[in-house]
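Example record used in the benchmark description.
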Amino acid sequence: MTRIGIAGHMDLTPATVVLVRAALVEALTPYAPDLTGVSCIAAGSDSIFADVVLDLGGTLDVIIPAADYRARKVKPEHADLFDDLVRRAATVRVLPHEVSDRAAYEAANNALVDDVDLLMAVWDGQAPVDRGGTATTVAHAHANHRTVQIIWPTGAARQRRR
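Model output (structure tokens):
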């Protein structure tokens, strides 16, 4: 059984969501159905990955960064998908952080990397903006001798910050 984790951007454009989903289907299909996906199921890349893993007949293991994550950080437009993925997951592990903050996100991403054979990163290649982000997770994976597969399809873009 292959354990594959995900790190990736949350702020994908609607067109990029379609591109990333197709790229993840292509990348994950060779591993199905003997596949376990590990995800923190945040909006964007994490949830797209988790949904694709389940659609391909794989197993989903979820890591939640902190006890208050669902209540404080899951936005209404993501809540139904988040709850559905939690329900469909084989395991859900909530890390021992009370508050969802950068330290909790970094711990969750590190736990994810430490638990997988391969990290797929939906990443535009930009330098890290803060702790716990995609670039930092990719660096942690490399430092811990994990294989990293970058997923950034031609035409992919992030939403502009407001």
